[in-house]
Input
Amino acid sequence: MSEGKKEASDVVPEATTTESLDRYRSSMEWESKFYRDTAALVERTADLQKVDRNVTHRLLTPQRALIVSIPVRMDDGSVKNFVGYRVQHNNARGPFKGGIRYHEEVSLGEVSALAMLMTFKCAVVGLPLGGAKGGIRIDPTPLSRAENQRLTRRYTTEILEMIGPELDIPAPDVGTNAQTMAWIMDTYSEMKGRVSPSVVTGKPIFLGGSQGRVEATGHGVAAVVRAAGEHLGFELFGKRVAIQGFGNVGTHAASKLESMGMKIVAVSDVSGGIYNPEGFDVKHLLKYVEIRKSVKDYPRAQPISNRDLLTLNVDVLVPAALSGVIDAEVAGQLKCRILAEGANGPVTAEGDEVLRQRQHEVFVVPDVLANAGGVTVSYFEWVQGLQSFFWDSKDVDERLFRILGNAFQEALSFKEKFQTDMRTATLMLGIHRVSEAMLARGLFP
Ligand code: NAD
Output
């Protein structure tokens, strides 16, 4: 369904003031602090660029949300019930797309907020896709492989009518991986009676996964750092980088930034950080981490706390672990020139306020753009699958750098047009693209 602006019946009634919108929202099933904060940010940003009020109102609620109960036979013969969700926020620009998360804190409020963010993330990078998210409230770590498989297959059958290659395409998120996607693809294919690899992305490569999908988010971070460097007239060669979090995003960002001539001087994981002002040999460090499972005690480096790493005197800082690590205090002490947000939501609302004041000292590339490399290569996987024609990793990387570089330039033009900070400008770009699609499609019926 979509929105138009010309019909009289379409006009938001007088009573729908900000106050009544607040009351309306707080009585909604998906109400949560995360949802409220996300919706408030979207509403504020839409109002700044004078988006049609009817469109904004529609953007503040998901288009569809499903709650399912998932009975699973455990290995000991008992049956346990879990709760799962799939939320589709907006498909004005194309089929829904978004990850599936297995975590004990998954809720309708969280999944709905993440679905909303996906709508704008896809739009920022210009993908012809909408936003969705799903999940199961469960800690998957104690599950056996067989239990996890039964859970995944039953969840898939419960949401079966909501997903499909042209309808809604799930992908991995926290607690799920390529194997989860292979089970979803198999269950969907068996139930539909035809092989449908394009119902999910993030599959194993031998099942139609894309080259470069694993590296995509980290490489995307490197792509926006390059774009920011060019914009600032800032030669990246030989410059210093600190990365918090040395997992999927952090390691691949480190390798790519090193290949661009930058010096990775500090990295960290849950056990703490390491620092060497001369820069690490990332390949050697990766081998060490493969064996030791942590950066801790890496030779020729001094230990540094996760907190101190953030305020190191470096040129580029990449938070690539947790959300909320840059609060007002840390934001006031950042010394980097470029902050590229690999993690989702690494800056708190208070931290963001400080960074807005410091925007001429610290150039922020917000998460919705800096970590959009993952969904971009997911989109490549979907396109390759539909065509049954696969690209090599060089093609994938070149297209990824081009798409993120273009999105960066578009966000910059919004920054200049509206004389605002980069985070607001980037969201404006996403909201603009979604709202123009909604208005062009008009209101059904
Ligand atoms: P990951 O699990 O592979 O790695 C996370 C890293 O953070 C690990 O090195 C871990 O040790 C470290 N870490 C955990 N707790 C920490 C703590 N308290 N202090 C410091 N470090 C800590 O996860 P990932 O896939 O690399 O994701 C990292 C971030 O990027 C998350 O915010 C995620 O939502 C976001 N993200 C990931 C992708 C993707 O494609 N993987 C896409 C978009 C956004």
Remarks:
- The longest strand covers residues 79-90.
- Residues 1-16 have pLDDT under 50 and may be disordered.
